[in-house]
Amino acid sequence: xxxxxxxxVIAPALAVLAALGLYARDPAPLDKDTFEALYxxxxxxxxxxxxxxxxxxxxxxxxxxxxxxxxxxEGHDYTSQLGWGATLKSHWEPDVAINGFAEENAHEKYRxxxxxxxxxxxxxxxxxxxxxxxxxxxxxxxxxYVYRWTDMAQARGLPVYLYETWHQLNDETGWLTRLDQxxxxxxxxxxxxxxxxxxxxxxxxxxIPGGQVMAAFARALEAQGPVGPLASHEDLxxxxxxxxxxxxxxxxxxxxxxxxxxxxxxxxHQLLRADGTAAxxxxxxxxxxxxxxxxxxxxxxxxxxxxx
Length: 308
Fold this sequence. Notes:
Elements: H1 2-19, H2 32-38, E1 51-55, H3 63-72, E2 77-81, H4 88-92, H5 101-104, H6 113-119, E3 124-127, H7 133-140, H8 142-154, E4 160-164, H9 175-197, E5 206-209, H10 210-224, H11 245-260, H12 283-300
Parallel strand pairs: 1-2, 1-3, 3-4, 4-5
Helix pairs in contact: 3-11, 8-9, 10-12, 11-12
């Protein structure tokens, strides 16, 4: 009897709260068949060089987008809004602080994220969620903020890309084990499918598979041994999570392959950092291995929207 009374009282109350926007149940994730169907066809090819806006943190950084611009050639341009370990929620909400905002955006390529997406000046938006991805989902509502940024961008005809990153090298589960399991477990099933379920008419959000490329390159080095200055995947990093110039180059290649739907094989490997100084050169042999790995990974994952 008590349960019936409780339901009689609570259900109408929740309905009123929902109507006022004070209570809402998250929709179920987009069903897998519908999700797969969104990626059955390749993404539309860009018409010329791209104008890209990056939202993220230090796994984007200043140097990687600058390297991407050099790989793409004159005419590619970009701006960004970054922070220290910044969440997509903090980039969206005006009353949530972005750690390191002043330091990370003290350069000529900064632009306010809302202003940029609303401007119509770009033809690609790249979203980067904080690391650790499990915590971003649990505490900072990643699906909601992927949806909000995507909804704003797609309403203006702007294609959206989600940059899949990675976790600390010393992760207790195992660095490669996490990369193998996290793509489906978190990036697709806990972020993309719930985010797309919020849309009235779901459109693809394409994947830039940074973590998957890192894993594949690590295995390539294991299989054939040292190449140029790279003996293992740890040589792509400056600490236990941030890439050095070699890692930035690998991620620039990955962005290039997805954003341009073109093989990066044969692209230059002697590049400049954002400040104009020479980046560490991986050399021709290591660069060619990186380029081949990137294209193999990007063309093997339907979520990238790229076909070989």
